[in-house]
Amino acid sequence: MSIPDWQLPAGVNRGLWDYLHARDMIAHYDENIQTAPLARVDIAFCERVFPTPGRLLDLGCGTGRLCAHFTPKGFHCIGVDLSDEMLEIARHKVPAARFVKANIVEPLEFPDASLDYIACLFSTWGMICGAENRAQVLAHVFRLLKPGGRFVVHVHNRYFRGLGWKRVVQQWWKTLWGSPDAGDLTMPQAYGGAPLTLHHFTRREVRQLLERHGLMVTHELAVDAAGEPARGSRVYGWLFASQKSPEAS
To answer: Which CATH fold would you assign to the domain 5-244?
Structure first.
Protein backbone atom coordinates (compact mmCIF):
# COMPACT_ATOMS: atom_id res chain seq x y z
CA MET A 1 0.00 0.00 0.00
CA SER A 2 1.50 3.33 -1.07
CA ILE A 3 0.30 6.84 -0.27
CA PRO A 4 1.96 10.25 -0.79
CA ASP A 5 3.95 11.67 2.11
CA TRP A 6 1.45 14.43 2.79
CA GLN A 7 -1.22 11.80 3.52
CA LEU A 8 0.86 9.90 6.09
CA PRO A 9 -0.87 9.68 9.49
CA ALA A 10 0.30 11.85 12.38
CA GLY A 11 3.51 10.51 13.93
CA VAL A 12 4.24 8.23 10.96
CA ASN A 13 7.09 8.88 8.53
CA ARG A 14 7.81 7.10 5.26
CA GLY A 15 10.13 4.54 6.88
CA LEU A 16 7.54 3.46 9.43
CA TRP A 17 4.80 3.30 6.80
CA ASP A 18 7.00 1.09 4.61
CA TYR A 19 7.77 -1.14 7.60
CA LEU A 20 4.11 -1.56 8.54
CA HIS A 21 3.27 -2.71 5.01
CA ALA A 22 6.37 -4.76 4.14
CA ARG A 23 5.09 -8.11 2.90
CA ASP A 24 8.24 -10.04 3.79
CA MET A 25 8.28 -8.63 7.32
CA ILE A 26 4.62 -9.47 7.89
CA ALA A 27 4.95 -12.97 6.43
CA HIS A 28 7.71 -13.84 8.90
CA TYR A 29 6.67 -11.61 11.79
CA ASP A 30 5.37 -14.32 14.12
CA GLU A 31 8.31 -16.59 13.38
CA ASN A 32 10.82 -13.83 14.11
CA ILE A 33 9.12 -12.53 17.21
CA GLN A 34 8.92 -16.00 18.78
CA THR A 35 12.72 -16.17 18.77
CA ALA A 36 13.19 -12.65 20.18
CA PRO A 37 14.28 -12.75 23.86
CA LEU A 38 12.15 -9.70 24.63
CA ALA A 39 8.98 -11.59 23.60
CA ARG A 40 9.44 -13.88 26.58
CA VAL A 41 10.42 -11.13 28.99
CA ASP A 42 7.66 -8.66 28.21
CA ILE A 43 4.90 -11.28 28.49
CA ALA A 44 6.20 -12.29 31.93
CA PHE A 45 6.39 -8.62 32.93
CA CYS A 46 2.80 -8.02 31.82
CA GLU A 47 1.60 -11.09 33.72
CA ARG A 48 3.13 -9.59 36.84
CA VAL A 49 1.51 -6.19 36.28
CA PHE A 50 -1.86 -7.45 34.96
CA PRO A 51 -2.67 -9.98 37.71
CA THR A 52 -6.43 -10.44 37.25
CA PRO A 53 -8.68 -10.51 34.15
CA GLY A 54 -9.95 -7.18 32.88
CA ARG A 55 -10.21 -5.03 29.77
CA LEU A 56 -6.80 -4.92 28.07
CA LEU A 57 -5.83 -2.67 25.14
CA ASP A 58 -2.68 -3.40 23.12
CA LEU A 59 -1.40 -0.31 21.29
CA GLY A 60 0.46 -1.38 18.15
CA CYS A 61 -0.74 -4.97 18.49
CA GLY A 62 0.83 -6.30 15.29
CA THR A 63 -0.40 -9.82 14.66
CA GLY A 64 -2.05 -10.09 18.07
CA ARG A 65 0.69 -11.65 20.20
CA LEU A 66 -0.40 -10.07 23.50
CA CYS A 67 -4.10 -10.69 22.86
CA ALA A 68 -3.37 -14.32 21.99
CA HIS A 69 -1.71 -14.75 25.38
CA PHE A 70 -4.23 -12.98 27.60
CA THR A 71 -7.57 -13.79 25.93
CA PRO A 72 -7.53 -17.46 27.05
CA LYS A 73 -6.87 -16.22 30.59
CA GLY A 74 -10.24 -14.45 30.70
CA PHE A 75 -9.13 -10.96 29.64
CA HIS A 76 -11.29 -8.93 27.25
CA CYS A 77 -8.61 -7.94 24.75
CA ILE A 78 -8.58 -5.19 22.14
CA GLY A 79 -5.75 -4.67 19.68
CA VAL A 80 -5.06 -1.49 17.70
CA ASP A 81 -2.70 -1.20 14.75
CA LEU A 82 -2.24 0.73 11.50
CA SER A 83 -1.38 -2.32 9.38
CA ASP A 84 -4.36 -3.95 7.67
CA GLU A 85 -2.17 -6.93 6.83
CA MET A 86 -1.17 -7.54 10.45
CA LEU A 87 -4.70 -7.04 11.72
CA GLU A 88 -5.99 -9.65 9.28
CA ILE A 89 -3.59 -12.19 10.76
CA ALA A 90 -4.53 -11.14 14.30
CA ARG A 91 -8.26 -11.61 13.65
CA HIS A 92 -7.71 -15.15 12.42
CA LYS A 93 -5.36 -15.94 15.28
CA VAL A 94 -7.53 -14.57 18.11
CA PRO A 95 -11.18 -14.49 16.95
CA ALA A 96 -12.39 -13.82 20.49
CA ALA A 97 -10.47 -10.53 20.68
CA ARG A 98 -11.43 -7.27 19.02
CA PHE A 99 -9.04 -5.65 16.55
CA VAL A 100 -9.30 -2.07 15.32
CA LYS A 101 -7.39 -0.18 12.65
CA ALA A 102 -6.39 3.17 14.15
CA ASN A 103 -3.49 5.55 14.69
CA ILE A 104 -2.58 5.54 18.38
CA VAL A 105 -1.49 9.20 18.15
CA GLU A 106 -5.06 10.23 17.39
CA PRO A 107 -7.98 9.93 19.84
CA LEU A 108 -9.19 6.34 20.07
CA GLU A 109 -12.92 5.75 20.04
CA PHE A 110 -13.20 4.06 23.41
CA PRO A 111 -15.05 5.51 26.41
CA ASP A 112 -13.14 7.46 29.03
CA ALA A 113 -11.95 5.42 32.03
CA SER A 114 -13.09 2.17 30.42
CA LEU A 115 -9.90 0.06 30.47
CA ASP A 116 -8.12 -1.79 33.25
CA TYR A 117 -4.85 -2.31 31.39
CA ILE A 118 -3.00 -0.83 28.40
CA ALA A 119 0.25 -2.04 26.84
CA CYS A 120 2.56 -0.57 24.21
CA LEU A 121 5.32 -3.11 23.56
CA PHE A 122 8.29 -3.82 21.26
CA SER A 123 9.29 -0.14 21.10
CA THR A 124 6.05 0.85 19.38
CA TRP A 125 6.09 4.11 21.33
CA GLY A 126 9.58 4.87 20.04
CA MET A 127 8.49 4.32 16.44
CA ILE A 128 6.25 7.38 16.68
CA CYS A 129 7.88 10.47 15.18
CA GLY A 130 7.82 13.68 17.18
CA ALA A 131 7.92 14.29 20.92
CA GLU A 132 4.49 15.95 20.80
CA ASN A 133 3.01 12.84 19.18
CA ARG A 134 4.58 10.50 21.72
CA ALA A 135 3.20 12.71 24.50
CA GLN A 136 -0.23 12.56 22.88
CA VAL A 137 -0.23 8.77 23.23
CA LEU A 138 0.26 9.09 26.98
CA ALA A 139 -2.60 11.59 27.18
CA HIS A 140 -4.85 9.00 25.50
CA VAL A 141 -3.63 6.30 27.87
CA PHE A 142 -4.52 8.42 30.90
CA ARG A 143 -7.96 9.21 29.50
CA LEU A 144 -8.80 5.60 28.71
CA LEU A 145 -7.57 3.98 31.93
CA LYS A 146 -9.87 3.50 34.85
CA PRO A 147 -8.68 5.02 38.15
CA GLY A 148 -6.04 2.57 39.36
CA GLY A 149 -5.57 1.20 35.83
CA ARG A 150 -2.11 0.10 34.71
CA PHE A 151 0.06 0.85 31.68
CA VAL A 152 3.12 -1.09 30.44
CA VAL A 153 5.54 0.34 27.87
CA HIS A 154 8.80 -0.88 26.34
CA VAL A 155 11.53 1.49 25.12
CA HIS A 156 15.10 1.28 23.82
CA ASN A 157 18.10 2.78 25.64
CA ARG A 158 19.74 5.83 24.04
CA TYR A 159 23.15 4.90 25.47
CA PHE A 160 23.22 1.16 24.69
CA ARG A 161 26.81 0.27 23.86
CA GLY A 162 25.68 -1.94 20.99
CA LEU A 163 24.84 1.24 19.05
CA GLY A 164 28.56 1.97 18.77
CA TRP A 165 30.58 4.47 20.76
CA LYS A 166 30.36 7.22 18.12
CA ARG A 167 26.56 7.16 18.17
CA VAL A 168 26.45 6.99 21.96
CA VAL A 169 28.77 10.01 22.30
CA GLN A 170 26.77 11.90 19.70
CA GLN A 171 23.55 11.19 21.58
CA TRP A 172 25.13 12.18 24.88
CA TRP A 173 26.04 15.61 23.47
CA LYS A 174 22.66 16.09 21.81
CA THR A 175 20.93 15.26 25.06
CA LEU A 176 23.22 17.55 27.07
CA TRP A 177 22.47 20.50 24.76
CA GLY A 178 18.76 19.78 24.52
CA SER A 179 18.71 19.09 20.80
CA PRO A 180 15.13 18.49 19.59
CA ASP A 181 16.19 15.32 17.76
CA ALA A 182 18.12 13.84 20.70
CA GLY A 183 17.34 10.14 20.85
CA ASP A 184 16.15 9.90 17.24
CA LEU A 185 18.27 7.23 15.55
CA THR A 186 17.74 6.44 11.89
CA MET A 187 18.75 3.07 10.51
CA PRO A 188 18.45 1.27 7.17
CA GLN A 189 15.11 -0.41 6.54
CA ALA A 190 15.61 -4.16 6.68
CA TYR A 191 12.73 -4.75 4.27
CA GLY A 192 13.66 -2.50 1.37
CA GLY A 193 11.74 0.62 2.35
CA ALA A 194 12.81 4.09 3.44
CA PRO A 195 15.12 4.38 6.49
CA LEU A 196 13.34 3.79 9.80
CA THR A 197 13.69 6.31 12.65
CA LEU A 198 13.39 4.92 16.15
CA HIS A 199 13.41 7.16 19.21
CA HIS A 200 15.71 5.87 21.95
CA PHE A 201 14.95 7.08 25.46
CA THR A 202 16.82 7.80 28.64
CA ARG A 203 15.48 6.26 31.83
CA ARG A 204 14.85 9.71 33.28
CA GLU A 205 12.98 10.82 30.16
CA VAL A 206 10.51 7.94 30.36
CA ARG A 207 9.83 8.36 34.05
CA GLN A 208 9.30 12.11 33.70
CA LEU A 209 6.96 11.72 30.72
CA LEU A 210 4.85 9.09 32.46
CA GLU A 211 4.58 11.10 35.67
CA ARG A 212 3.83 14.30 33.75
CA HIS A 213 0.80 12.55 32.28
CA GLY A 214 -0.51 11.27 35.61
CA LEU A 215 1.03 7.80 35.40
CA MET A 216 3.15 6.88 38.40
CA VAL A 217 5.87 4.28 37.82
CA THR A 218 5.37 1.12 39.89
CA HIS A 219 7.70 -1.43 38.26
CA GLU A 220 10.80 -1.16 36.09
CA LEU A 221 12.95 -3.79 34.38
CA ALA A 222 16.21 -3.12 32.50
CA VAL A 223 17.29 -5.88 30.10
CA ASP A 224 20.19 -6.56 27.75
CA ALA A 225 19.91 -7.78 24.16
CA ALA A 226 19.49 -11.35 25.39
CA GLY A 227 16.58 -10.40 27.64
CA GLU A 228 18.59 -10.74 30.85
CA PRO A 229 18.64 -8.12 33.64
CA ALA A 230 21.28 -5.48 32.92
CA ARG A 231 22.83 -2.25 34.14
CA GLY A 232 24.61 0.75 32.64
CA SER A 233 25.57 0.67 28.97
CA ARG A 234 24.58 -3.00 28.72
CA VAL A 235 20.92 -2.01 29.02
CA TYR A 236 19.31 -2.58 25.62
CA GLY A 237 15.94 -1.31 26.82
CA TRP A 238 13.45 -1.01 29.65
CA LEU A 239 9.98 -2.20 30.52
CA PHE A 240 8.08 0.29 32.68
CA ALA A 241 4.79 -0.29 34.47
CA SER A 242 2.81 2.70 35.67
CA GLN A 243 -0.54 3.31 37.31
CA LYS A 244 -3.22 5.95 37.09
CA SER A 245 -4.06 7.22 40.57
CA PRO A 246 -7.12 5.51 42.10
CA GLU A 247 -8.37 9.01 42.93
CA ALA A 248 -7.96 10.36 39.38
CA SER A 249 -11.03 11.22 37.40
So the answer is: Rossmann fold (3.40.50)
